[in-house]
């Protein structure tokens, strides 16, 4: 039994040395802290001699946000390590392997993925990943199906809901995504040149109704174990491999929230192309690639999910004709609505994305921001009427 303390690099090395069957007893280890330091420490431990390495991720008992410090439960480290291990049972090739979890230190020991890059960075360099849609569509279909009442015993599922109660991290989502952006909250971070667009959103009661409905779904629908923070900064990628990391926001919620988060981040990069591709034809071509990827992600998800349903669902009520179609259409509608919410909050909420904020040219950045807001608000307003992913694509393509 140890007591919690935030590890120093020397302590991280000492801890790594003690792990069974990883490093030699006399190994000369080095450590580098590579996290961004807001919520968690991430130590990259290497043994030059053998070439072996691993990652220690340790939760801090607070989050640093806008200069202030707010307490945050260490239990999220348990949730993250248990979610990673559960996801690995459905698709081991799509998540980092977890070697150990140390409760008292809120520490997860996992596979080093430094040969991959964070996808947000890859997209900002206009790279293309032809296997990505297949990988992530499969990840979402498997993790969302096999943790739902369709893919597991309903009584076991209820117990699993209890395993992943995550009220403090859910509150961050509830406030930052479904509340603050729709009123003049001190948590917002509004640039002066966007004041008119933001004021219009604060007055738009038709929009607020749709957000309130989506918020209610997020609060009440224990449908599947979500990743909970599935943006392109939570994905490590290289040409032949995709790995989903950082599920500390995992909880039982609506499937469309994960799918929508992912699609929103592809669409934020789409909007950000105002600043990242200088050549008109090149920009149009990369945008075409992004929209094709959005469509393929949904298409793979739907195909895989239907296959799992056809093969693995055994209860007679779920085999009722037309039920599967009804179900997937509802997931599509919620995906579109949550995607819109995820886009809006990244433009003037508390926390933004580098795709947009990294644009140096002020007029290009403003154009990208207004485009993202136009797409995001249209998706939210349209979501309950949607019947095809093509409608999301058309909204993105036609937004001015
Ligand atoms: P946080 O919850 O603080 O955002 P992440 O799990 O996203 O933590 O990790 C933060 C950063 O640490 C990542 O962007 C990545 O650069 C690095 N990192 C995290 N996990 C790994 C890993 N398994 N292999 C290599 N680098 C990692
Ligand atoms: Mg981070
Ligand atoms: Mg992260
Ligand atoms: Mg995180």
TrEMBL record:
Binding site for ATP: 40, 57, 111-113, 246-248
GO molecular function annotations of the record: ATP binding; S-methyl-5-thioribose kinase activity
Keyword terms of this UniProt record: Amino-acid biosynthesis, ATP-binding, Kinase, Methionine biosynthesis, Nucleotide-binding, Transferase
Pfam family, one: APH
GO process annotations (BP): L-methionine salvage from methylthioadenosine
Domain Aminoglycoside phosphotransferase: 32-269
Pathway listed: Amino-acid biosynthesis; L-methionine biosynthesis via salvage pathway; S-methyl-5-thio-alpha-D-ribose 1-phosphate from S-methyl-5'-thioadenosine (hydrolase route): step 2/2
Domain of life: Bacteria
Glycoprotein as UniProt keyword: no
Catalytic activity entry: 5-(methylsulfanyl)-D-ribose + ATP = 5-(methylsulfanyl)-alpha-D-ribose 1-phosphate + ADP + H(+)
The enzyme's E.C. designation: 2.7.1.100
Keyword rRNA-binding applies: no
Family in the record: Belongs to the methylthioribose kinase family.
Role description: Catalyzes the phosphorylation of methylthioribose into methylthioribose-1-phosphate.
Subunit structure as annotated in this protein's UniProt entry: Homodimer.
Record PANTHER family: METHYLTHIORIBOSE KINASE
The protein's name in its UniProt record: Methylthioribose kinase
